[in-house]
Amino acid sequence: MGIIYFILVLSVIIIIHELGHLLAAKAFGVYCYEFSLGMGPKLFSIQGKETKYTLRLIPIGGYVAMAGEQEDDMELYPNIDVPRNRSIKGIAHWKRIIVMIAGVVMNFFLCWIIVSGILLNNGAYAISPKPIVDSVVADSPAEIAGIESGDIIKKVVFDDGTVIKPKEFSDLTVFTQMYSGKMTYTIDRNGELMDFEVQGVPNEMGLYIVGIGAPTSEVVKINLLNAGQYSFDYMVSMTQDIFKSLSRLVQGNGLDQLSGPVGIYQVTAQQASQGLPNLLLLIALLSLNVGIFNLLPLPVLDGGRILLVLVEIVIGKPLNKKFEIGIMTASMVLLFGLMIFATWQDILRIFN
């Protein structure tokens, strides 16, 4: 069943993302040759008024083939003659940007809808407390270091150079539980700033625990009027954590924590075994991650393609074709290399 859930989760996220591109393109009159779910050999297809809807063998990935997006359009679709004003490069620049960002918007929307539904089902939402030490576990790294109940955590500096200035207690746990090295906690104790060096110890789940207890969370009741607001707050918090993680990766920190398809498969199987709400929350979080990842300024991703359009606006003419193809190819190689590295990390974690 694990593989079925894995395919289902990825399919939902991909369909929603590509559907965003499709709907935006059609809204601006762009001719779309094909809307494909999956990659590789075609299993079957349905021809719409203009667009062919295809299911392919490999259930990972998907795409919308828009007129003018590739130089070999006429070779791939020889019997279709599309005027330039109906191609992606024949519409206004601002419309192209909307088409490109529409997939990301749909990913965000999917996350918001799912989290809102989960909150409504639960009927309550726990607001993360302030970064104040409520309790310290006996003989824990925190107690040994000298941290006390009532201390206000102002900053945590990791040995790898990462700096966290928490606004909420959850800002800490996302990173400290995954970090095996030493950390320096800057504490406000009765108005005096003090530094304490702490190194977490792994528990039975492989998370690194320092022994600091959080204050009790404020629990608010959820209804139709406030579910969307708290869902948005949750997404903002998760987005901040994702950008912090990306920032660490760019600096070469936390690369051993990367996960690829193998890791996602394992997490999907685990969450599915714990019930539908857990599986839905995973879909929401992965959808948010996919949306943010696609905003990165790599030419093969939506963010990079938007950047290229902005460059065209600035220079006042289309980019050189060879240059565009070159940077697209380079970014594709980079992404494949990153995926291979992440998959290798997943395999190492399995054998370890």
Automatic annotation (TrEMBL):
<dbReference type="InterPro" id="IPR036034">
    <property type="entry name" value="PDZ_sf"/>
</dbReference>
<comment type="similarity">
    <text>Belongs to the peptidase M50B family.</text>
</comment>
<feature type="transmembrane region" description="Helical">
    <location>
        <begin position="325"/>
        <end position="344"/>
    </location>
</feature>
<dbReference type="GO" id="GO:0016020">
    <property type="term" value="C:membrane"/>
</dbReference>
<keyword id="KW-0812">Transmembrane</keyword>
<keyword id="KW-0862">Zinc</keyword>
<keyword id="KW-0378">Hydrolase</keyword>
<keyword id="KW-0479">Metal-binding</keyword>
<dbReference type="GO" id="GO:0006508">
    <property type="term" value="P:proteolysis"/>
</dbReference>
<dbReference type="InterPro" id="IPR008915">
    <property type="entry name" value="Peptidase_M50"/>
</dbReference>
<feature type="transmembrane region" description="Helical">
    <location>
        <begin position="97"/>
        <end position="120"/>
    </location>
</feature>
<feature type="domain" description="Peptidase M50">
    <location>
        <begin position="5"/>
        <end position="337"/>
    </location>
</feature>
<dbReference type="GO" id="GO:0046872">
    <property type="term" value="F:metal ion binding"/>
</dbReference>
<protein>
    <recommendedName>
        <fullName>Zinc metalloprotease</fullName>
        <ecNumber>3.4.24.-</ecNumber>
    </recommendedName>
</protein>
<feature type="transmembrane region" description="Helical">
    <location>
        <begin position="279"/>
        <end position="300"/>
    </location>
</feature>
<keyword id="KW-0472">Membrane</keyword>
<dbReference type="Pfam" id="PF02163">
    <property type="entry name" value="Peptidase_M50"/>
</dbReference>
<keyword id="KW-1133">Transmembrane helix</keyword>
<dbReference type="InterPro" id="IPR004387">
    <property type="entry name" value="Pept_M50_Zn"/>
</dbReference>
<dbReference type="GO" id="GO:0004222">
    <property type="term" value="F:metalloendopeptidase activity"/>
</dbReference>
<keyword id="KW-0645">Protease</keyword>
<keyword id="KW-0482">Metalloprotease</keyword>
